[in-house]
Specification:
By secondary structure, the chain is of the alpha/beta class. 32% of the residues lie in helices and 24% in strands.
């Protein structure tokens, strides 16, 4: 049921605002029986659906197993920023990967928004897509210096980014809070669940099968085949891709130790109407240079959505909403007290060097993981790369080196430390 004015579907089990405002879910049903396929893909987020789409388009028989529903993980909960590149400045990527690998990776990631927006165009995906850039905003003068260094480096690499003065940032964002910003015109903003559903629908149309509410429970290699026991039936496949990312369970031993899961929450106001016209008039989304990142954007119905790192706190997210009210009051005092529609959080997979990974876990078993909060582009192009690998490309041709599983042995220590810091920060920002 859709309320036309607010764009809101009433959905009891919604995982985010986007789950309630994105167009209808693709026609996928639980697995009914035991089946045989060439490639089985576990996880119905961007990575899983992109792998399935590109394999199906290459004529490969494949199916996706999703434990819950399409976009249940990060893909249906994120901030919707379609950014090129990754968090790390390019020179740091070179240090970690070496010149040659870094150039290939940065080239693919630099072009990744084009890949996302051309899929949106090609499959007519209804996901509130706007392409007026995103703004990395400076929370301090040191933050502005960091952004101007980044701008120099990106320009050297031929990217058309623009450093914004404090006044320009104020005009574009509608607040005096920032010291300036870096506008990346290649980037854009989407309804993330709309894109997740559209990508899954595109994979279905190309011939892939998708089974929701079907959790892979056990993965075994039997001869040269893989057998996946699910809660619904058994899948036998020649090759398997795990696209569970931060939502991985214990399906493959040690995979959850490849990254640290951290949370990011968002709070959405009710549609604000014309009083908010001065806020983000060009519909960019914004994140800042603060150590505990802050994000702000609007949706197409005029809701303001603010977010930061950590879990929702308090009964019915009351503490988080209190924090949100404070932040909105500081940034946009002309709004007065706002009413909130909903709040949610999701998990991000953080790797120690902030780079994503493509792992070969066993013969015929691959995964892409650790997108460090940059999964719209990374998940889409990693899915493409996995499909290339499975259709005969050599490991040296794809966007990232393919490695064995690399565990972060202190991930279990990092998680409570990070979450504790985020909590303390939110408390400090609320007083
Ligand atoms: C709050 C938040 C804000 C973010 N903001 C941005 C942003 O603005 N821009 C950006 O680019 N990225 C952002 N990200 C990161 C981005 O959302 C993720 O990197 C991306 O969605 C990962 O996609 P994925 O397909 O790899 O994994 P997911 O979307 O997490 O999907 C994994 C799926 O696997 C399923 N699964 C797991 N185990 C099993 C199993 N055993 N059997 C069957 N299914 C299984 C899960 O149910 C889940 O649906 C954000 C993330 C969060 C949480």
């Amino acid at each position: 049921m859709m309320n036309e004015t607010l764009g809101l579907k009433s959905e009891k089990d919604a995982v985010s605002l986007w789950d309630m405002t994105a167009p209808t879910e693709p026609q996928a049903a639980p697995l009914q029986d035991s089946v045989v396929t060439d490639v089985a893909i576990i996880g119905g987020g961007y990575t899983g659906s992109s792998t399935a789409l590109h394999l199906a388009e290459a004529g490969i028989d494949c199916l996706v197993l999703e434990a819950e529903k399409i976009g249940y993980g990060g893909s249906g909960r994120n901030c919707g920023m379609v950014n090129p590149g990754i968090w790390l400045p390019p020179q740091d990527v070179r240090t970690v990967l070496g010149e040659q690998e870094a150039d290939r990776f940065l080239g693919v990631m630099g072009d990744a928004p084009n890949v996302v927006f051309s899929l949106i165009d090609r499959f007519n995906i209804d996901c509130e897509a706007t392409r007026n850039g995103t703004i990395h905003a400076a929370h301090s003068s040191a933050g502005f210096k960091e952004l101007s260094d980044r701008a120099d480096e990106w320009k050297r690499l031929g990217r058309n980014v623009r450093l914004l003065s404090a006044e320009e940032a104020q005009e574009k964002i509608g607040t005096q809070r920032f010291y300036g910003g870096l506008l990346d015109p290649q980037a854009g903003t989407i309804n993330p669940m709309g894109y997740a559903r559209g990508l899954a629908q595109a994979a279905l149309s190309a011939g892939a099968k998708i089974h929701t509410e079907t959790r892979a429970l056990k993965l075994s290699q039997i001869g040269d085949k893989w057998q996946i026991e699910t809660n619904r039936g058994v899948v036998t496949a020649n090759r398997v891709v795990i696209g569970g990312n931060a939502y991985n369970d214990d399906l493959w031993p040690g995979l959850k130790r490849a990254y640290t899961p951290i949370h990011f929450y968002q709070v959405a106001t009710k549609p604000l109407g014309s009083i908010a016209d001065k806020i983000l008039p060009e519909a960019q989304s914004v994140w800042d240079t603060g150590m505990v990142m802050f994000s702000v954007r609007k949706d197409q119905f005029g809701r303001l959505i603010v977010g930061s790192m950590g879990k929702l706190a308090g009964k019915d997210a009351s503490q988080t909403k209190y924090w949100a009210q404070k932040q909105i009051g500081k940034m946009f005092p002309f709004l007065g007290k706002v009413e909130f529609e909903t709040a949610w959080h999701g998990k991000i997979a953080l790797t120690p060097d902030h780079l994503p990974r493509i792992h070969s876990l066993a013969p015929g078993l691959f995964t892409a993981v650790g997108f460090n909060g940059r999964g719209i582009t990374t998940g889409t192009v990693c899915g493409q790369a996995l499909a290339q690998l499975l259709t005969g490309a050599s490991e040296s041709e794809i966007m990232l080196p393919v490695t064995g599983l690399r565990k972060d042995n202190i991930a279990f220590l990092r998680e409570p430390v990070y979450e504790g810091c985020f909590k303390a920060w939110r408390y400090y920002k609320s007083i």
